[in-house]
Amino acid sequence: MVRIGILGGAGYTAGELLRILVNHPDADIVFVNSSSNAGNMITDVHEGLLGETNMCFTDSMPFEAVDVVFFCFGHGKSKQFIEENKIPDNVKIIDLAQDFRLKAPGNDYIYGLPEINRAEIAKAEHVANPGCFATCIQLGLLPAAKMGLITEDVTVNAITGSTGAGQKPVGTTHFSWRSGNMSIYKAFEHQHVPEIKQGLRQLQGHLDAEIDFIPYRGDFARGIFATLVVKTDVPVDDIVAGYKEFYADEPFTHYSDKPINLKQVVNTNKALVHCEKHGNKLLVTSCIDNLLKGASGQAVQNMNIMFGLDEKSGLRLKGSGF
User: What range(s) does the Semialdehyde dehydrogenase NAD-binding domain occupy (predicted)?
Assistant: First the structure.
């Protein structure tokens, strides 16, 4: 049984972690920390867990009682927390923020994308969970990188649901603004681009192209749908064969012969990828649930790998189907 602590327990990613872990056969949730909610029932915040747990939030952090701790902080707070608090060396860390995703001197965090780093994750003490856009876009492009196809700038458009902005309300997450609306933000400057490049470079060996990424806000709650355009003269049959081989043994990422849609992945830990060719343009579509394969589901997937469990344990989640 894996003993678990969760920090930053009031946000969306923590809520999704709890939804998975309360039914995980090998998980024992020891504490859920939230200073602002200490003493309150978890179901007062995460109402969908009513009937699933009677736990309360706590302001204590008994690290000596756990095997792994999940950081569900806002970006930038994980580094600060580690500087101000001592976590025992025998406690593994899975950080869902962006603080440790990029390789740097002194950073021992393994980038937690199992499709390319499974063996390293299995031996890791510290894992940096990928970003949601970064996961979706990389899974669409990694097989192309392995085939050496990314030699020119890649055009990326991706739309995300309102939960991607976190639980704290802001002007662009209010229902009255978001409903029936669409907008772009952080065009060409999104914070996930460096980790996307890092992953592509890892497989291709080099990357002399830009990732021209335009993110969109969608008028739905959860999910990411991305379109990626790669210029190449390689025949589509060869490309499809490469994609199918790359994902043949993956438990959650699947190549689809048919065009994909967002509802196929919402409320699941799945990623779907599809390719088609238009002249010398390879169009790749990919989609995930931003809160699951893009965050908490992938974090549990990483936990399973780190502790030698069945990788799919606790993650046999099913979408709506319609």
Answer: 3-124
Tell me if residue 287 is catalytic. Answer: no
pTM: 0.94
Residues 85-112 have pLDDT tens digits of 999 999 999 999 999 999 999 999 999 9
Between CA 153 and CA 27 the distance in angstroms is 43
Q: State the DSSP code for 188.
A: T
C-alpha span between 33 and 40 (Å, rounded): 11
CA-based nearest residue to 196, from 186, 183, 211: 211
**What phi, psi does 246 have (nearest 5°)?**
-60, -40
CA 151 to chain centre: 26
Write the CB contacts of 29 (distance below 8 Å, at least 6 apart in sequence): 4, 6, 18, 21, 22, 53, 55
Q: What is the pLDDT of residues 51-87, one digit of tens each?
A: 999 999 999 999 999 999 999 998 889 999 999 999 9
| Domains of the chain, first to last | 2-130+294-306 (3.40.50.720), 132-288 (3.30.360.10)
